[in-house]
Inverse folding.
């Protein structure tokens, strides 16, 4: 098995330490950093995505694989910087104002990171103004708005309107989710997408950013 | 003998271990409480409080003092006065309640949508007629139909107007808590009357691990100050915000509830409290939160045993529910399995009537069927006495059956006992011929018939006009203050 294959397998196994050590070894052997990323780490994480999509593995396995991949990326990051970012896109995600629930939001953050999206977790009870500041500061392609209550889902609509008024609506795609949220609600409030669960949110985000 | 059948899911060693670990957690790690006024009061009462970090620790002496202050007997009253709930339940049974927190309503045509105020009224007309449902919650009326900042006060107005049964209130905003108390007081002629006969109790929830946000702390604090019963609740999701093991999740939930109970009893010794662990688990493939995972059902039994047997504190958890979207086979397998298991626990209250889709949807037809399921479960818990009379020794030893004219159908023993077997109203108890003649009705068909009978009947309860006027005055004030 080649060293790049071993890196892929270490990612698939969620072997954080093993991935780091094998990537270090590859660097020592002067394997091109882009090749380590694309032919080693990414091959592993893509295989994880395929297995998860087929219902063959569980979420903790996905998250451990993602962690292993990130450890590997950290090793080669200094060598890759001249080649551009190591993530495929950027998102800011938060639970809307008035809502303190964050289990689902945290899962979305983890799952988006597992598909190599740089995610800024804005926390819970996040106001429209804070989201707008987040857009200006981080320049994401995607904003994720989570709401668990029928009383707070209206805030998703309010935030989207606030984006329009602040002139930042066209800069981002807005993805919404949460227990009472539906595709119908997403259509009604002019959101760009609705995700029923964390994995769907990650897939939606990945598809969007890779289509750019 | 009633209330005799109980599962013991922990041995004595396990029960003692769980108690000691919970108390150690309260003493060594403590809690995070986002309520300055409450922190100050609890500091004065002896808790170790860091006002900057808002962290609080208890001592063993304080825990023991609080547990000792919990009333052994208390009553949750009903607005109608006809369904008062004495704790412990004198006949050894459990009390039951409707589901709380569901955003969706599935009407009798099968359409699912956000809950309207009209459907809230429909719900209370139904619950008044359900003989095996003992108290009610507030359906989550949509912010599309009433002001989003005041959903709970608008829904409570309907509950106070229509519900003959005790009302369990789940506030949605810190600022709303006092108005909810004031509305309830207005419905009975003032706070003093409400304290004497609480027709409402409140739910306050922790956030794992050991954190209490301002809104929930405010509920605890205002209820303690006003002397209103609380059913402190923890809603952890195993694997998401608590350990993936059901036992670990039960441990944290029970510790969080214990902390709330200790705080309530320190602030208001003798306040009626009911421990309410509502445990969930996360499916590790879909990440969906589940209500009906098998291990989490056992964890609920553990939690009930801990509070009821370990601390002699009345306890409350889910008694029915499903992760199914529909009233299908999965639904009925899950809810009857859960109901029967929980009926065999030491629980004083079982909840969740009417819910589908992991408590996210309520259904009037499911509520009517749950009424039957709870009836069966109550009968199961009561068990059967075994003695000379119940085994019919006298007739058998007397060889009465050898008499050619003897028939069990007409025996004195049958005459004394034939009314005892539980007979669910809507279940088929007839042969195929009559069933076909009667239109081959399913249980759901019969539930629909019952729905129409109830909805076409006169209201059985409505709050008096003068009291309702007082409630509306508070509602008006709440609307002015809360709706932005």
């Amino acid at each position: 098995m080649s060293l790049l294959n071993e890196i892929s397998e270490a990612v698939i196994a969620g072997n954080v330490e093993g991935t780091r050590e094998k990537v270090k070894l590859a660097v020592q052997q002067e394997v091109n950093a882009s090749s380590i990323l694309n032919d080693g780490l990414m091959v592993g994480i893509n295989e994880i995505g395929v297995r998860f999509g087929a219902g063959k593995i569980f979420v903790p396995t996905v998250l451990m694989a993602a962690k292993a991949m990130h450890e590997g990326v950290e090793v080669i990051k200094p060598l890759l910087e001249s080649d551009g970012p190591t993530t495929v896109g950027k998102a800011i995600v938060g639970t809307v104002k008035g809502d303190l629930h964050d289990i689902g939001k945290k899962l979305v953050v983890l799952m988006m990171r597992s598909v190599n999206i740089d995610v800024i977790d804005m926390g819970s009870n996040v106001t429209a103004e804070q989201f707008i500041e987040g857009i200006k500061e981080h320049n994401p392609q995607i904003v994720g708005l989570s709401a668990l209550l029928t009383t707070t889902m209206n805030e998703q609509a309010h935030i989207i309107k606030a984006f329009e008024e602040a002139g930042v609506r066209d800069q981002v795609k807005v993805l919404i989710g949460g227990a009472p949220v539906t595709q119908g609600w997403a259509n009604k409030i002019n959101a760009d997408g609705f995700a029923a669960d964390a994995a769907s949110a990650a897939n939606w985000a990945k598809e969007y950013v890779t289509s750019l | 003998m009633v209330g005799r059948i109980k599962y013991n899911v922990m041995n004595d060693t396990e029960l003692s271990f769980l108690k000691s670990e919970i108390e150690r957690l309260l003493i060594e790690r403590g809690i995070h409480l986002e309520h300055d006024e409450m922190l100050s009061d609890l500091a004065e009462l002896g808790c170790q409080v860091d006002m900057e970090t808002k962290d609080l620790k208890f001592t063993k002496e304080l825990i023991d003092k609080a547990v000792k202050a919990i009333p052994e007997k208390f009553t949750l009253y009903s607005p109608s006065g006809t369904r008062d709930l004495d704790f412990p339940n004198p006949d050894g049974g459990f009390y039951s309640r409707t589901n709380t927190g569901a955003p969706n309503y599935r009407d009798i045509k099968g359409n699912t949508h956000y809950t309207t105020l009209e459907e809230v009224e429909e719900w209370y007309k139904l619950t008044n007629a359900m003989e095996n449902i003992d108290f009610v919650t507030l359906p989550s009326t949509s912010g599309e139909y009433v002001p989003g900042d005041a959903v709970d006060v608008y829904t409570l107005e309907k509950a106070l107007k229509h519900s003959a049964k005790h009302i369990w209130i789940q506030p949605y905003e810190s600022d709303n808590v006092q108005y909810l108390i004031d509305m309830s007081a207005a419905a009975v002629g003032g706070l003093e009357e409400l304290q004497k006969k609480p027709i409402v109790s409140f739910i306050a929830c922790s956030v794992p691990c050991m954190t209490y946000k301002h809104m929930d702390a405010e509920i605890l604090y205002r209820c303690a100050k006003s002397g209103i019963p609380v059913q402190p609740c923890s809603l952890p999701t195993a694997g998401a915000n608590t350990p993936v093991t059901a036992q670990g999740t039960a441990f944290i939930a029970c510790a969080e509830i214990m902390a709330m109970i200790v705080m309530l009893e320190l602030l208001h010794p003798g306040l009626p409290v009911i421990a309410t662990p509502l445990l969930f688990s996360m499916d590790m493939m879909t990440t969906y939160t589940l209500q009906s995972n098998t291990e989490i059902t056992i964890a609920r039994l553990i939690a009930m045993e801990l509070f009821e047997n370990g601390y002699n504190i009345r306890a409350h958890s889910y008694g029915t529910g499903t992760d199914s979207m529909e009233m299908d086979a999965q639904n009925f397998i899950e809810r009857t399995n859960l109901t029967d298991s929980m009926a065999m626990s030491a629980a004083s209250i079982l909840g969740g009537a009417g819910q589908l889709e992991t408590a996210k949807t309520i259904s009037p037809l499911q509520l009517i069927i749950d009424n039957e399921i709870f009836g069966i479960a109550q009968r199961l818990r009561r068990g059967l006495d075994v003695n000379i009379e119940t085994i019919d020794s006298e007739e058998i030893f007397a060889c009465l059956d050898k008499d050619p004219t003897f028939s069990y159908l007409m025996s004195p023993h049958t005459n004394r006992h034939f009314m005892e077997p539980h007979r669910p109203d809507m279940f088929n108890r007839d042969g195929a011929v009559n069933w076909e003649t009667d239109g081959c009705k399913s249980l759901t068909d019969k539930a629909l018939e019952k729905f129409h009978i109830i909805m076409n009947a006169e209201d059985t309860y409505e709050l008096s006009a003068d009291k309702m006027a007082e409630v509306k005055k508070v509602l008006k004030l709440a609307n002015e203050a809360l709706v932005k």
About this structure: The longest strand of chain B covers residues 200-206.
